[in-house]
From TrEMBL, chain A:
Any one Gene Ontology molecular-function term assigned to this protein's record: electron transfer activity
Protein name from the UniProt record: Electron transfer flavoprotein subunit alpha
Record note on cofactor: Binds 1 FAD per dimer.
Top-level division of the source organism's lineage: Bacteria
Record field: transmembrane: none
Keywords noted in UniProt: Electron transport, FAD, Flavoprotein, Transport
Cofactor: FAD
Taxonomic lineage: Bacteria, Pseudomonadati, Bacteroidota, Chitinophagia, Chitinophagales
Stated family: Belongs to the ETF alpha-subunit/FixB family.
Residues binding FAD: 207, 232-233, 263-270, 284
InterPro entries in the cross-refs: DHS-like_NAD/FAD-binding_dom (IPR029035), ETF_a/b_N (IPR014730), ETF_a/FixB (IPR001308), ETF_asu_C (IPR014731), Rossmann-like_a/b/a_fold (IPR014729)
TrEMBL record, chain B:
Keyword Transport attached: yes
Name of the protein: Electron transfer flavoprotein subunit beta
Pfam (any one): ETF
Family the entry assigns: Belongs to the ETF beta-subunit/FixA family.
Family annotation (SUPFAM superfamilies): Adenine nucleotide alpha hydrolases-like (SSF52402)
Domain Electron transfer flavoprotein alpha/beta-subunit N-terminal: 23-211
Keywords: Electron transport, Transport
Species for this entry: Flavihumibacter solisilvae
Keyword Manganese assigned: no
Any GO MF annotation of the entry: electron transfer activity
GO CC terms of this entry: cytosol
């Protein structure tokens, strides 16, 4: 009757969003009077006993090399086998790139109701209801899961993991694995960059920056703060910045602790991707820019004058 | 080759989001409906591009919804596609919708099923994976590029901080996003032609919904922006450090 959390990894390292999912799963287990166990697929270099610090009692590890890259069908099959062997009623995943591929398959296979992109713990006072973002961040819906088995995929950065004392017991799990139908032939990662979807701090630029040659100040501030960089669609469409940086209704949807927008007007489609950010800062020379209505802090001013001073102040603060 | 493109109807991106009936229903008064942008710009246009390369390709569009979804599917036909299927049922449960699509897909024997990355109203990112599972097919989600070489597909898909390139044989289910194709505007010929393209209405298969929306809520209102004078940017840094404690 346990809660099973799927721990996602890349290059052998557990993703930050999976620690959040683990901690969330432990909380749900507490609510439902059971324990939280984890399933890990493929080769890992991280110490899996450390998942105990997030409230996980037992880790089932399928160390099959065919699972070193993600194939949604193989991963689903392995997780289903773990669900069967642990008798788990609730499966928790992160609603990250891999979770979005696996969770719906699990839901269809197990005939388990699913909340894609949960932002809160379940409300079990009447049934089993979980809140999720809808209308691209403009509203929330409370979803009732009407099946005995349930799938929750948790929005990254929506739940702060709680750390505690503890070590998890790690046991090998022998799942039957067939050859993958989807073969990964290459991975193109931008080295040293903070992935946007996992970033706590994001510095973003819009058309107000005039051209790609002016992105130095965005990158410098991001570098100083360990932040990721993002941009508006207008900027990605003009090929000033790569596609994957584009946030908004038709781009990435993010919920960092800080979204720092420079020279972005704040069109409704842009806001749709960033309005779940905890703190929004807007630098725009137009006091009427719609973004100020969604902002927590702002400066009405010219980015080319303001940004160098902000960078200097951050340098001073960081002692560099 | 046969491609099935999943088309959903969503409120226009600028629609005012409000709820009625004690916050249980989306207020549709004055709302303009559009083809979900991911379905239109990426899934459908990609299918059209594949047909332009190989004219023997057949494109079917499917929407699960009531008669009010017909203007949307006609609009999609104006962009391209040979015929459309509407499964006559209204549901907000992803599994119910996916089961309808899977039933039609099974019958039609498609080589490719394209969906959008997500609907901009429900934001599920769920239908594609469910359809793939129901059909027992491979699924590549969040695809940014798709190329076909005979019956082998090369697909780029988003991962954290980059992209992954993968190879898979057909049949396949793919969810499409930015990068896959460029937005197109339907031309007059397309719009005229769409009127006479077949639009088949089929009755739904019986499935039990797994979920139900109990209520909606709007995010709490923001307290209002704290403006810092333009000549004191260091004050902003101090506030972010000391008050918001962000770094
Ligand atoms: C269906 C649909 C989907 C869309 N999806 C998205 C999406 O996902 N993401 C997205 O971003 N957009 C999206 N858009 C586009 C959106 O409507 C806007 O056009 C876009 O966000 C504008 O980008 P921008 O703010 O960078 O540029 P602009 O609107 O040109 O704004 C530039 C801003 O910079 C300010 N500025 C200029 N010079 C300076 C300076 N020196 N210092 C400081 N500020 C300055 C200006 O005052 C202005 O506010 C979508 C549109 C549609 C119709
Ligand atoms: N009612 C529907 N009819 C047809 N296709 C749909 C429907 N709802 C969603 N889809 C497809 O599934 C994708 C993902 O939707 P969702 O899982 O709701 O985010 C969409 O981009 C569409 O391609």
């Amino acid at each position: 009757m346990s809660v099973l959390v799927y721990i996602d990894q890349a290059d052998g390292h557990i993703k930050k969003s999976s620690f959040e999912a683990a901690s969330y799963a432990a909380k749900v287990a507490g609510q439902t009077g059971t324990t939280a166990e984890a399933i890990v697929l493929g080769k890992v270099s991280d110490d899996l006993t450390s998942l105990g610090r997030y409230g996980i009692s037992k880790v089932h590890h399928v160390a099959d090399d065919q699972l070193n890259t993600m194939d949604s069908k193989l991963y689903t099959n392995a997780i289903v086998q773990a669900v069967e062997s642990t008798g788990a009623e609730i499966v928790v995943l992160s609603h990250n790139v891999n979770g979005k591929a696996i969770a719906p398959r699990l839901s269809a296979r197990l005939k388990a109701g699913m909340v894609p992109g949960a932002v809160s713990l379940p409300d079990t006072s009447a049934g089993f209801v979980v809140k999720k973002g809808v209308f691209s961040g403009k509203a929330f819906a409370n979803i009732s899961l009407q099946t005995s088995k349930k799938i929750i995929s948790l929005t990254p950065n929506a739940f702060t993991p709680v750390q505690q004392e503890g070590t998890a017991e790690v046991v090998p799990f022998n799942a039957t694995i067939v050859a993958p139908a989807v073969k990964v032939t290459a991975t193109n990662k931008v080295k040293g960059e903070v992935p946007l979807s996992e970033a706590e701090l994001v510095i973003s630029g819009g058309r107000g920056l005039k051209g790609p040659e002016n992105w130095g100040m965005i990158e410098e501030l991001a570098h100083l703060l360990g932040a990721a960089t993002a941009c508006s669609r207008a900027v990605a469409d003009a090929h000033w910045r790569p596609h994957h940086e584009h946030v908004g209704q038709t781009g990435g949807s993010i919920a960092p602790n800080l979204y720092f927008a420079v020279g972005i007007s704040g069109a409704i489609q842009h806001l749709a991707g960033v309005n779940r950010s905890k703190v929004i800062v807007v630098i725009n020379k137009d006091p009427e820019a719609p973004f100020f209505k969604a902002a927590d802090y702002g400066i009405v001013g010219d980015a080319f004058e303001v940004m160098p001073k902000i960078i200097d102040a951050v340098k001073k603060l960081k002692g560099v | 080759m046969k491609i099935l493109v999943c088309i959903s109807k969503t409120p226009d991106t600028t629609a005012k989001i409000a709820f009625t009936e004690n916050n249980t229903k989306f207020a549709t008064d004055g709302v303009q409906w559009i083809i979900n942008p991911y379905d239109e710009w990426y899934a459908l246009v990609k299918a059209i591009e594949l047909k332009e390369k190989d004219p023997s390709t057949v494109i079917h569009l499917i929407t699960v919804g009531g008669a009010d979804a017909e203007p949307i599917i006609r609009k999609a036909l104006a962009l391209g596609g040979d015929e459309a299927i509407r499964v006559n049922t209204d549901s907000s449960d992803s599994f119910t919708i996916a089961s309808q699509i899977a039933a039609v897909a099974k019958e039609g024997g498609y080589d490719l099923v394209f969906t959008g990355k997500e609907t901009i109203d429900y934001n599920g990112s769920a239908i594609g994976g469910m359809v793939a599972e129901l059909l027992d097919l491979p699924y590549v989600s969040l695809a940014t590029k798709f190329e076909l070489n005979g019956t082998t597909a090369t697909i780029n898909r988003e991962i954290e901080g980059g992209e992954e390139v993968a190879e898979a044989g057909l049949p396949l289910v793919i969810s499409c996003q930015k990068g896959m194709a460029e937005q197109r505007i339907p031309n007059m010929k397309g719009i005229m032609g769409a009127r006479t393209k077949p639009l088949k209405v089929v009755e739904p298969v019986q499935v039990e919904a797994l979920t139900k929306i109990v209520s909606f809520e709007l995010p709490p209102a923001k307290a209002g922006v704290k403006l810092v004078p333009a000549d004191q940017p260091e004050e902003l840094v101090r506030l972010l450090h000391e008050e918001a404690k962000l770094f």
